[in-house]
From TrEMBL:
Gene3D superfamilies: FAD/NAD(P)-binding domain
Xref: InterPro entries: FAD/NAD-bd_sf (IPR036188), HdrA-like (IPR039650)
Keyword Disulfide bond appears in the UniProt entry: no
Keywords for this protein: 4Fe-4S, Iron, Iron-sulfur, Metal-binding, Oxidoreductase
Species the sequence originates in: Bryocella elongata
GO function terms (MF aspect): 4 iron, 4 sulfur cluster binding; metal ion binding; oxidoreductase activity
A family per Pfam: FAD_oxidored
Protein name: FAD dependent oxidoreductase
Domain of life of the source: Bacteria
PANTHER family xref list: COB--COM HETERODISULFIDE REDUCTASE IRON-SULFUR SUBUNIT A, FERREDOXIN:COB-COM HETERODISULFIDE REDUCTASE SUBUNIT A
Length: 756
């Protein structure tokens, strides 16, 4: 193991590293991988036999974050960087959502990093302080090999979920629900309460092909009517997705966790007994109980205090932070502390109009100088925690911690030292260069030689025409084309409809009140078009409004009598058709209508359909919209955000290429490309299946050549978002050409090119 010194004496191993990460959930994994890739020696300590925490095969909860099952208005919001690598890789290997395969994907990602020493089945139980504010070392014990590990490092990360490291070090923390007055949060109670989000347990069933008898264990819950919502139970041979089998919110979810587990086992086995033996579910006759969770998934325990506390107002108002390093977008998702024994709904979810920034100051302890915070224990109020706690958000934020640890190591700094403006800018730019997305923060790294190049292409896609597939939209539901627009007037747009009798079609132009959002909450104007009957009737809409800057706009078609809009199977990066409806998994109405005084916004949900059902509105644009020019690949954004931010070739271009050319030869050591793996797709890791392994717009095969004709790379198979070519020795050239050799059914897009 490079950069580590180990001495084995009497079943004790002493290890010194640049960084010790405690906790091997997705937060700890993403943090450790990020730090190791930046050159740090890392020890990753996990108290379970597998990695992944709640996403592992021990618990089997799907990974989600800002995309929220595509049930909110956060378009193209899937988290970037390491967590994106994991989800995209799992999609390619495991579209069926097998949790055991997901385990192997996560384990492989850690194992291939040579600078990571992974300690599984190893629990931290003791630490030594250098002084009252600095951790010097931690001690951990592995019950499998009966070995104690003494781990020394200048920097530590607590990604343990319950905050064992912070707790032992005396880091300040919160637990329970703060009073409304504490952080001026309208959703909070008038008085502080010891009410937490509890644990949940999953089980799987499968069809055995013949009748199966079930005899419950003696400890199973006998009286199913103790569960007020017992009539809501359903049967599925793919497993019961009963996240609301929840308990323990009124207890200490750390010290009472074993008590909570036993109660959940009683509940889960009792529920299965009810399904099998009550007679109310004849469709369960051939089902057998295939798997029961051995440990519950834990939601909430300690939350540690940093130099700032994220609150409800930061989420709803989408507060801008100078030290933004990550983002969230899950709803403020609060559960009754009585869990399954509550008569209330299993959760209430209040969404914001867009994603919100997460500040770096929430990611280190305010009173333990060398302790970073990662995962669900970051500095947030109980109300805000309802959103920040989900796994993709935790993993994405933890990447920021791994990068911050690298900067601290390089300059012998402590976490708080990175708040100095130039250092914070360096941290943000390093994160963006590594594939992270920070909403509203543009990559401006002058070290990227691609910014100095003249960029040309074989062709550029123009948004001119989405041909009709002769399918029609659902009646009585507003539909919209979510479209990238340049500053100025929107080109005239002709939509197409199937009209049975003469009628009037109303088309409205809406934008978002906040840059980067994709919630249509700012009305600009409307036109009403009288049309005659026909199988394909042109509906021409011309708007006079002038847009101040590039943005996404909504062309909304209101429901009308005697017809429906024609659809198209065309696909274009950064363009979607959405409709006003709800996703029952994360909302209860097409319009979010919170109670008065809640501090939450009222707005409509505009959701796209998942593939293979996704469509666009058939349309023609006059003149075409130049949304995919070659220079987009160096504009500082690597996903759709206020525009497409991508180059894509024309539909008819059979041999697409993108070329970067310099006036003088440049010395290149690394070339990194960012492809289109559909950031709007949530890519849930388990339980849900997916119809495809590779995203339709992802470049699947490519070749990179120099001006002299030398082939630098010939990639036969690609499915990942980012491809990084590290040359063994620098080469000098005046140009490189990226040739697209194989593609999917959507235009092959490149969001970013970096040359160093």
């Amino acid at each position: 193991m490079r950069d580590l010194r180990s001495v084995r004496e009497c079943n004790e191993i002493v290890t010194m590293a640049n960084l010790v990460v405690v906790g091997g959930g997705l937060a700890g994994v993403c943090c450790a991988i990020t730090a190791a890739r930046e050159g740090l020696s890392v020890v990753l300590v996990q108290d379970r036999p597998v990695l992944g925490g709640n996403s592992s095969s021990e618990v089997r909860l799907w990974v989600l974050g800002a995309t929220s099952h595509m049930g909110n208005n956060n378009r193209w919001a899937r988290e970037g960087g390491v967590i994106d690598e994991i989800l995209v890789e799992n999609m390619w290997r495991n579209p069926e959502g097998n949790p055991v395969i997901f385990d192997s994907v996560v384990l492989e990602k850690v194992r291939i990093e040579e600078r990571i020493t992974l300690l599984l089945n190893t629990s931290v139980h003791e630490l030594r302080m250098k002084d009252r504010q600095t951790i010097a070392a931690v001690r951990a014990f592995n019950s499998q090999n009966q070995t104690t590990y003494h781990l020394e490092s200048p920097l530590f990360v607590d990604a343990s979920g319950d905050g064992i490291l912070g707790f032992l070090a005396g880091a300040e923390f919160l637990m329970g629900c703060e009073a409304r007055s504490e952080f001026d949060e309208p959703l909070a109670p008038n008085q502080p309460e010891h009410k937490l989000l509890g644990h949940s347990i999953y089980f799987y069933s499968k069809d055995a092909g013949r009748p199966v008898t079930y005899v419950p264990p003696a400890f199973a819950l006998n009286d199913i009517t103790r569960i007020p919502r017992y009539r809501d139970f359903r049967v599925s041979d793919t497993g019961c997705r009963l996240w609301w089998l929840e308990y323990g919110g009124n207890l200490d979810t750390v010290t009472a966790t074993e008590e909570i587990k036993w109660e959940l086992w009683a509940i889960a086995y009792g529920v299965w007994n009810y399904i099998k033996n009550s007679g109310d579910f004849p469709e369960a006759e051939n089902l057998t109980l295939e798997w029961m969770g051995s440990i519950p998934g834990k939601r909430e325990s300690r939350r540690f205090l940093g130099d700032v506390v994220i609150t409800q107002n930061d989420i709803v108002s989408q507060t801008s932070f100078q030290d933004a390093v990550a983002y969230g977008g899950w709803a403020i998702d609060l559960h009754p502390s009585d869990g399954i024994f509550s008569a209330e709904p299993g959760c209430t979810q209040w969404h914001a109009k867009g994603v919100y920034q997460i500040p770096y100051r929430a990611m280190y302890s305010r009173n333990v100088a060398n302790l970073f915070l990662a995962g669900r224990i970051i500095s947030a109020s109980h109300i805000a925690f309802g959103s920040t706690r989900v796994m993709a958000t935790c993993g994405h934020g933890a990447q920021s911690v791994g990068m911050a640890a690298a900067l601290c190591t390089e300059s012998r700094l402590l976490p708080r030292d990175l708040l100095q403006p130039s250092r914070m800018n360096t941290l943000q730019q390093r994160l963006l260069a590594a594939g992270q997305h920070i909403p509203g923060v543009r990559a401006t790294d002058s070290a990227n030689l691609a910014r100095m190049a003249t960029i040309t292409a074989s062709s550029s896609l123009q948004l001119d025409h989405f041909p009709s597939s002769e399918e029609v939209s659902e009646p009585d539901i507003p539909v919209a084309l979510l479209l990238p627009a340049q500053a100025g007037k929107l080109p005239a747009t002709t939509l197409y409809a199937r009209i049975d009798l003469p009628t009037t079609v109303r088309v409205e132009l809406w934008t978002s009140s906040r840059r980067g959002n994709t919630t249509p909450d700012e009305f600009l104007e409307a036109v009403e078009i009288r049309v005659e009957s026909g199988a394909c009737v042109a509906v021409r809409a011309q708007f006079d409004s002038v847009l101040e800057f590039p943005m996404h706009v909504f062309l909304i078609v209101a429901p009308f009598a005697h017809g429906a809009m024609l659809l198209s199977r065309a696909q274009s990066p950064g363009v979607l058709m959405v409709s006003q409806r709800m996703n029952a998994a994360v909302a209860k109405s097409p319009v979010q209508t919170p109670p008065p005084g809640s501090g939450v916004d009222t707005f409509a949900f505009w959701l796209p359909a998942r593939r293979p059902g996704a469509r666009l509105l058939a349309a023609t644009f006059h003149p075409p919209i130049p949304a995919y020019e070659p220079e987009m690949v160096v504009n500082g954004f690597s996903r759709p955000w206020c525009g497409t931010n991508a180059w894509a070739p024309a539909y008819t271009d059979e041999h697409p290429w993108l070329r970067l050319q310099w006036n003088e030869p440049q010395s290149l050591r690394r070339i990194t490309l960012t492809f289109d793996t559909d950031y709007d797709h949530p890519m849930e890791s388990v339980l849900l299946g997916h119809p495809e392994r590779i995203m339709p717009g992802c470049i699947r095969s490519l070749r990179i050549t120099t001006a002299e004709g030398d082939v630098l790379a010939h990639i036969m198979e690609n499915h990942q978002t980012r491809f990084s070519l590290k040359l063994p020795t620098p080469i000098e050239t005046k140009a490189i050409t990226i040739e697209v050799l194989a593609r999917g059914e959507a235009p092959p897009a490149i969001f970013e090119v970096s040359c160093r």
